[in-house]
Structure formats: structure tokens, C-alpha cells
Design brief:
Number of strands: 5
Shape: elongated
Number of helices: 3
Strand content: 15-25%
Structural class: alpha+beta
Number of domains: 2
Strand order of the largest sheet: 3-2-4
Distance between the termini: 33 Å
Radius of gyration: 22 Å
């Protein structure tokens, strides 16, 4: 889950904080502007409820002021470690590809790996692409 509860104050020294609970009262973690992501294993969104106990007592001192805080965004996503691994492998290869000079031999190698990994990618089996990337990178000692 992702919670964007906004940012307030010049140095973000003020703002809303909260504590995330599941329906059974289990405390998951605190949420604030520095702790926006919550990863829950085995969370059944269709059959579970969560609560956020919030408070806005974070003040930087000075005169007490009435504040209004709103949730800017709350989103849910299924976290899959295989998708995460594939994303970061592809991202790092692409970042390195863009960093290399046009005449660098590895630029062609990275381009080939990216094209092939994306062509064999399917939602049903992310591992095919990930295994291909790892296999190809293992052939080049300097890349690893």
C-alpha cells in the first residue's frame, strides 16, 4: 500500500502521522511523509479491513495553529518479488546503456539483452525474462 499524506511546513517539520492497524487490531507500522510504503504479506484485500489512527500533533513550536491534513493518495498494489527483481535488472541495464558512449562494445550487449528480455516477457512467467538476463550477464565478467 502507498500512503501520500502530504507535506506541510517549510522544512516538513509539521504534519500528520498515523499508525496502521489490521481489522484484528494487529499494528502494522507507522505512516507519515517519510514512511509511505507498507508491504503486507498474505493480505487479502477483498476480505480484510485496515484502520489508520492519525494525529497531527507534530509541531515545530511557536503559536498553536489549527491545521487541516488530507490524504492526497492511497493506492494498493500486489507486490511480487519476481516483478520487482525484473524491474530493477531492466532499470540498471537501461541506466548503464544510456551512460555508455556510443562506441562502447557493452552498449550493443546491453541493447541485445534488453530487446530479448522484453520479447520473451509474459505476465504469467516473469522468470523467463529474469533468467535470460542473469544468464546473459554471467557471460561477461566485467558487467557483473
Amino acid at each position: 500500500m502507498f500512503f501520500d499524506i502530504g507535506k506541510t511546513g517549510v522544512w516538513f517539520e509539521k504534519g500528520m502521522e498515523g499508525l496502521l492497524y489490521l481489522k484484528d487490531g494487529t499494528v502494522c507500522q507507522g505512516v507519515d511523509r517519510n514512511h509511505q510504503e507498507v508491504i503486507l504479506e498474505n493480505f487479502d484485500i477483498a476480505n480484510n479491513v485496515f484502520y489508520i489512527l492519525t494525529w497531527s500533533g507534530v509541531e515545530a513550536g511557536g503559536e498553536e495553529k489549527e491545521q487541516e491534513h488530507t490524504f492526497k493518495k492511497i493506492s494498493f498494489a500486489l507486490y511480487r518479488p519476481d516483478y520487482n527483481a525484473l524491474y530493477y535488472h531492466l532499470k540498471h541495464i537501461l541506466d548503464e546503456y544510456e551512460r555508455l558512449d556510443a562506441d562502447n562494445t557493452y552498449k550493443y550487449v546491453y541493447q541485445k539483452i534488453l530487446k530479448q528480455a522484453l520479447s520473451i516477457y509474459t505476465n504469467e512467467n516473469v522468470d523467463n525474462s529474469l533468467d535470460y538476463i542473469k544468464e546473459q550477464l554471467s557471460k561477461y565478467n566485467k558487467i557483473i
